[in-house]
Amino acid sequence: MDLADFLNRPLEIGGRVVKSRLVLAPMAGITHVAFRRLTAEYGGVGIAFSEMSSCRSLPNENPKTSRVFRWREDEKPRLVWQILGADPDLMARAAARMEKEGFFGVDLNFGCSAPAITKKGGGAALLKDPERAGAMVAAVRKAISIPLFVKFRTGWEDNPEKAADLARIFEDKGADALTFHPRTAPDLRTRPPKWDYIRIVKKAVSIPVFGNGNVFCVDDCQRMLDQTGCDGVSIGRLAAVRPWIFSQMTGAYTPNGGEHLAALKRFATLCAENFDPRPAMNRFKTVAGYMAADFAFGHTLNIMVKTAWSLEDALWAAESFFSDNPEPASALNPALLG
Fold first, then answer.
1. CA-CA-CA-CA dihedral for 280, 285, 27, 6, to nearest 10
2. Most C-beta atoms within 10 A of its C-beta, which of 28, 150, 227, 336?
């Protein structure tokens, strides 16, 4: 299978069509308006997912003052907003607000396994009670007509059949597409994802399934598709390391050196345009820290940037690091991938 040819095949989701089967995964602190703009400028992103947002705040959230609930008008046709919560009625209200804003779709976060989230009954905690999770999907489905996505994990037990059962429930209750991360909730990122489980979930449903988890290079994307038969790939941390990866995988862009610094310069501008000085600096530092994973001595870049006192100083530190033509890493450094 030719990778670029497959990824550029249109995919129908909930009666709408996306032009690329590569999607930008939702990542807290990363997939905000500035970073989404950066990846969009390179191209190749079929759908971009927002950072997760609490269903309690969304119905009344003001995009003029919120740091998370912000977007560009031109991205709405391919923007999916991810919502998080434990109350079906509140989730439905939040989803209705998303449809009113004109986004492509809504994504339900059933995958976050951070204790701060699961202790409140949200994220992956919902996978402990399939009936309750299904009721939440049904409630949101009733509230919106735009495409409905569900992102979820294997569950709390290492049993792919239970993940397949969850997928069937989500489809039956009205989900239009699924993003599946084949790790259990207790695993967090301590163990490799089991891509074979994606194939099992894919075979269980008739709606599109996006695979997610440890796609760290072009070859990984090819292997995931070949191994699982999934309909598309959801790319997370690799996008922070190489924001052009979507365009590269879809055949429209060939890296030729100097991409990281060029991307950081543009990203610094976008952060400054969209955020006040301190949050702009912090968002820049986060992405620069991920980019450091692509270099043999990337920890130096990470330290230089993280200890800067301003966005300007952080960018200067990055420019200083790249002026020495740093040696690329043979593989991404997992210690710098969060």
1. 110
2. 150
